[in-house]
From TrEMBL:
SUPFAM superfamilies: FMN-linked oxidoreductases
Protein known as: FMN-binding glutamate synthase family protein
Transmembrane domains' residue ranges: 12-29
Keyword Membrane: yes
Keywords assigned: Membrane, Transmembrane, Transmembrane helix
Residues in Glutamate synthase domain copies: 152-467
Domain of life: Bacteria
Family label: Belongs to the glutamate synthase family.
Source organism per UniProt: Leptospira kobayashii
Record bears the keyword Transmembrane: yes
Length: 516
């Protein structure tokens, strides 16, 4: 021991270097083997710098960069709420609001003097966060397998290919344990979507997973896939999405490996191109016929997803449904502010209407044709927060789809590298090293906590306003700022009332028909 001490005292710099190297080796091994922190797992040693800078971020932004409300598309306060909720941490904020409550467009939810007693809230099973759908999807058209979602908050369309396999598994496990369903995105149903959650299978213009050798839709393949996978409860025909409506997507050849090629029924190592339009139908009547064909073959409720541009399509669709009694069981309206993958800047910024405007126009049109109550309405487009969900519900939404907020819950840091395949958090990439940073089990639990935390706060808001169920919200419960000292009820601002809810009691909506 004396010799070691003597050697250290005579070689201080060399011995210090050995200690430092040993320390960094220990940290490196610890970082790549732990599963809790994605950034440290993907970027050992240097990943700690990110958390240090994040710790002093408020001070740096306060004096040098930006405040907590200036970052986009989700500011730091919003991201902090998601992260804390997903981790089961304290998601409350102190010292009052930092919002500009007189800023035009700012919503205020009006509480009641006599709230609904939380002691009387109905608990489904042992889940105090359960919020079942009030409508049964497919009941109107008497589909063979109607579906009542256990949760009105569900995970929106994000394809395997756009997201990595670990991210897809984490989201599916999170949805499974929270009782939500998981939309596959247009990339098709993969083994990573089969972790136990109910599935909304999205079929886009490429018909991935249900196409023949020529890229045409194959009804027999679609029927076979549904029969083999009992977790598929809904089918969504994607006409367009908010990020890039009217434009097909492309998965570069480098990302089309054997696994993705098998799932999508495409060639290995070649660009996987989604056409900008469907080949199975060219007009509204043919679209309705296609919906009925798929529904009859599978027995499942079938709906459509679309961003909103020209209104003539919707007018014609309403007329065809009214005349034939046939058509979609649900309609998902995607806002132009949405988008989880790559899109040209002009499309992302300027093509398709924002959610509130687009939904208002379509919903009121269907009201005029006395069809709105028969259809299940789904809202999508930056709605992953309780206050925004309340506004969407008051406008007429029966269900809410969330995408980017769900990505944040499993580790996304809003690096905005989704289109490069270099997502540092390992969420939106096929890079094997970056993906390994996302542990499906741990991140799945965080997705579950986020969904459950979201629903608990949504229920709490409903109770504060005197309601047992959030779908009882109306446009009279919300006021929108029109500028200094001027507020207007949402109902008056939009110019319509959502369809009345014939709500009885919570327990009457807890029958969940299955597939047999």
């Amino acid at each position: 021991m004396d010799q070691i001490t003597t050697w250290i005292s005579t070689n201080p710099w060399f011995s210090s270097g050995i200690v430092c190297i040993g320390f960094f080796i220990i940290v490196f091994v610890r970082d790549i083997t732990q599963k809790k922190h994605t950034i440290q797992r993907n970027f050992p040693i240097v990943g700690h710098l990110r958390y240090f800078l994040e710790t002093i971020g408020p001070e740096l932004r306060q004096y040098w960069v930006a405040n907590d409300k200036e970052e986009r598309p989700f500011d730091r306060t919003e991201r902090s709420w998601i992260y804390a909720t997903a981790k089961g941490q304290n998601n409350n904020f102190g010292f009052g609001t930092t919002e500009l409550q007189y800023e035009p467009g700012y919503p205020i939810i009006k509480h009641h003097a006599f709230p609904f007693p939380e002691s009387k809230a109905h608990i489904v099973g042992k889940d105090p966060s359960c919020i079942p759908s009030l409508k049964v999807i497919g009941a109107w058209h008497k589909r063979k397998f109607p579906y009542r979602p256990y949760s009105i908050i569900n995970i929106s369309a994000m394809s395997f290919g756009s997201l990595g396999k670990n991210a897809v598994m984490a989201l599916n496990r999170g949805a499974r344990d929270a009782g939500a369903y998981h939309n596959t995105g247009e990339g098709g149903l993969s083994q990573y979507h089969l972790q136990g959650a109910d599935i909304m299978w999205q079929i886009g213009t490429g018909y991935f997973g249900a196409r023949d050798e020529n890229g045409k839709f194959d009804l027999a393949k679609a029927k076979e896939k549904v029969e083999k996978n009992k977790n598929i409860r809904l089918i969504e025909i994607k006409l367009s999405q908010g990020a890039k409506p009217g434009k097909g997507g492309i998965l570069p050849a480098a990302k089309v490996n054997a696994e993705i090629a098998k799932i999508r029924h495409v060639a290995i190592g070649k660009d996987c191109i989604s056409p900008n339009s469907h080949s199975e139908f060219k007009n509204v009547s043919e679209l309705v016929e296609f919906i009925e064909k798929v529904a009859d073959a599978t027995g499942l409720p079938v709906g459509i997803k679309s961003a909103v541009g020209e209104i003539e399509f919707w007018e014609e669709l309403a007329k065809v449904i009214e005349a034939t009694g046939k058509g979609p069981d649900f309609i998902t309206i995607d806002g132009g502010e949405g988008g989880t993958g790559a899109a040209p800047l002009t499309y992302a910024d300027h093509v398709s209407l924002p959610f509130k405007i687009g939904f208002q126009r379509v919903y009121t049109l269907f009201q005029r044709h006395n069809l709105s109550e028969n259809i299940v309405w789904i809202g999508s487009g930056k709605l992953g927060f309780p206050d925004r969900a309340v506004v969407a519900i008051a406008m007429g939404c029966d269900l809410i789809h969330i995408a980017r907020e769900a990505m944040l819950s499993i580790g996304c840091i809003q690096a905005q590298k989704c289109h490069t395949d270099h997502c540092p958090a390992g969420v939106a990439t096929q890079n094997w090293w970056l993906q390994r940073g996302v542990d499906p089990e741990l991140k799945g639990k965080r997705a579950t906590k986020y969904l459950q935390g979201f629903r608990k706060e949504l229920l709490s808001l409903a109770h504060s306003c005197g309601y047992e169920h959030p779908l009882q919200f109306t446009g009279r419960d919300i006021e929108i700022s029109m500028g200094m000292n001027r507020y207007q009820p949402l109902e008056d601002l939009l110019g319509y009332k959502r369809d009345p809810i014939a709500f009885t009691k919570f327990a009457d909506y807890t029958d969940f028909p299955g597939r047999t």
